[in-house]
Amino acid sequence: MNDQPRRRRPQHSSRPGSGPRKPYRSPSPDPVRRLAWDALRAVNERDAYANLVLPALLREAEKKGPFDRRDAALATELVYGTLRRRGTYDAVIAACVDRPLREVDPPVLDVLSLGAHQLLGTRIPTHAAVSATVELAREVVGDGRSKFVNAVLRKIAADDLDGWLSRVAPPYDEDAEDHLAVVHSHPRWVVSALWDALGGGRAGIEELLTADNERPQVTLVARPGRSTVDELADAVGEFAEPGQWSPYALRLADGGDPAALDAVREGRAGVQDEGSQLVALALAAAPLDGPDRRWLDACAGPGGKAALLAALAAGRGAAVVASEKLPHRARLVARTLAGNPGPYQVVTADGTRPAWREGAFDRVLVDVPCSGLGALRRRPESRWRRRPQDVAAFGPLQRDLLRSALRAVRVGGVVGYATCSPHPAETRVVVDDVLRGRSGTPAAAAELIDVRPLMPGVPDLGDGPDVQLWPHRHGTDAMYLALLRRTA
């Protein structure tokens, strides 16, 4: 037995010039990842929309400082990337835990999803992604559960995204829809609905699903008579490029900030997807016999199409009525239209119970409430909130609004039926039912107008007479437009 006293560990290194060993201190909380986690919690717990909650959190962080443009860019990528790839990351995480995902506390699952995105969807080094996410877990869910987070992330880090997909996605030949759902992070029913709407084989649907997961460019509209594309391009500088299809569109590359532009702050320009611009432009370009003095936007909130229509109408001496059912959205419309040089009126009214007489308008736009399956690039959380029954639930309202719009337009006038969804049950089926007088009070008699000549230069518009735009073909949201002329 050794009775010598146990040698004490030296308190400092024997290396020349080295001082006493400093006690361990955990890294400071990372404000970027904490902000991203706060945004995800708001989206997943309170059904907030990322495009609303994230800017508010970024403004608050910038006030507290230090929080620069690169921090904001990383936070944005973490939030939107995690939301877009949630389905894929859920499948990977599920393979790394010993319980069903529904039994993992939602705050912990949000931390794991953030970590998975850093490991599998970004170029952040593995050690940095793991350590920073574990520190976030300590801060927001406690030290005990941070150990669970650490163990799961180290399992995820053992392979790259392609390797994980080969393990967690079923083979395409065995279950094509489930394979696409896992690989491209869409609910299976959405994959099926989009595939039906698109038609064709595997290549087309994979291109569409891939486009849904890409970050869309911010697109500006120069409202005619109030600003120009050249003015916006000069103000934006190197971050600007012309729109592809609309003569009023300007696309911003990374780094362009719409809020910094005088024209946007003053309402002379706005942020508006090019597909939305094309819908308004096509309605305004449809040929009319007789007067062209009164236009109606029957579902105007939040006001982007109404503002473009009002600017176009002002150039022709026409007046616009913008109607919105919800008072807070009607206030947004009024704010967007403020300063328009031509006559306009904003009313709070239900488009199915109109506040105007029959045949009062020459042109009517009805951009109906819908599932939003055409805007999954911009609102990735929508794909996880919608259910198949939601599509059917919108149907009666969509038909009522179209019937009401046809009664609001005069004989010879034109109605534009638009929706940000490619689902056939929200597009052609609705139009066909109303034209044929199915399911409800018969509408005024009408005929379809070919939309394609009214979108000059835009390719791949199908067989007509209606038009479906696509993210992978046109770089726009999946907007649908049918134009109908009232005949009696």
Descriptive terms for the model:
12 strands, alpha/beta, 488 residues, 20 helices, 8-stranded mixed beta sheet, globular
Structural account:
This protein is α/β, with parallel strands linked by helices and 488 residues long. Helix content is 46%, strand content 12%. The protein contains 20 helices and twelve strands. It has helices spanning 31-46, 50-64, 69-84, 86-94, 106-121, 126-140, 143-156, 161-168, 176-184, 188-198, 202-212, 229-236, 262-265, 274-285, 304-314, 327-337, 382-385, 388-408, 428-435, 471-474; strands spanning 218-222, 240-242, 249-252, 269-271, 294-297, 319-324, 344-348, 361-367, 409-419, 446-449, 467-468, 480-486. The protein is globular and about 75 Å long.
